[in-house]
Amino acid sequence: MLEIERRLEAERLAALENLEKVQDQAQLDQWKQNHLGKTSVTMSAFGQVVTVPNEERPAFGKAVNAAKVVLETALAGKLALIKQKELEARMSQGTIDVTLPGRGLRRGRIHPLNLTAQEIYRVVGQMGFQIYQSPEVETDDFNFTFLNIPPHHPARDMWDTFYTDKDNIVLRTHTSPGQIHAMREYCPQPIRVILPGACFRYEQQDQSHEIEFMQVELLAVDKGITFADLKGTLQDFARRMFGEQTQIRLRPSYFPFTEPSAELDVECFVCGGKGCGVCHGGGWLEWGGCGMVHPRVLEYGGYDPEIFTGFAAGMGVDRATLLRYQVDDIRYFRNNDIRFLEQF
Ligand code: FA5
Q: How close is the Cα of 332 to the center of ligand 1, in Å?
């Protein structure tokens, strides 16, 4: 054993013995100074590593470090003991003022996305739609195939998602798979449901695109439902949601699961359709997609498309929240920055 190791061992024993005698915080501070301060035997041993022959250095370094850890652990233990004793002493002397007011609890708030979702549920509830919960984790069949997007269909690219290790299990890219769940549950009865929830996309994030966002889907299936019902429902929905004067516009579009299909635009309520920064000068804001349920999708849901027709529409809750509160970046919603969230 090297001389220095002998000294370390002696110092360790002496330090622990001294620690036994420590009674209060001031004595503990002094003990720390003596045994773990810069000039203490243990700490100054670190500086002596260079003087030790090469082959003995690793063992020496280890021994010094171990000695330091032992002292630090003993110090922490003693500190806890002293604090506990102090607390007990204060409590037994009654020096805790129980009449002092307690620490205030911060009040939580409803997240802005949920505020919008709740407003949507209120509005569509008045219109006779029932909430139907469907899974956020789906099979490939529900997310794609049953929505008339068979394997290798190019439209799969538009709704690319996150795949799991489990064969065939994906995170849903839209709320549309819920259409199939609802149809299979209610068939052959008429349906009027709203399908809300989280969606996930393999997407480049920017001011208006997130990899996780919320959608709400409206689905109505019955005998004799027409495109006019779709348009009337969406017009009514937008007015109840954003104000009596709100105009909507349906632009022809393509979705494999609806035919015909349209994009749903809402007149910009920041500028009233005149054109502004929020609507990029166009006067209209895209809110979702819609159309008449494709006959093949009705069949996958169990309905006979010769007898039944239906409409569906899927709207972004995040986008609606951006618009309602005039927020300019969708990424704020999930950053969990309390300074942002406190404003709602
Ligand atoms: C769809 O998801 C279709 N399932 C909508 C639909 C339903 C069409 C029923 C026909 C019948 P789309 O990918 O365009 O379509 O998304 C619809 C809305 O979801 C968008 O208008 C937007 O408001 C929102 N959305 C889509 N992708 C994102 C994203 N990455 N981040 C935030 N919101 C998004």
A: 19
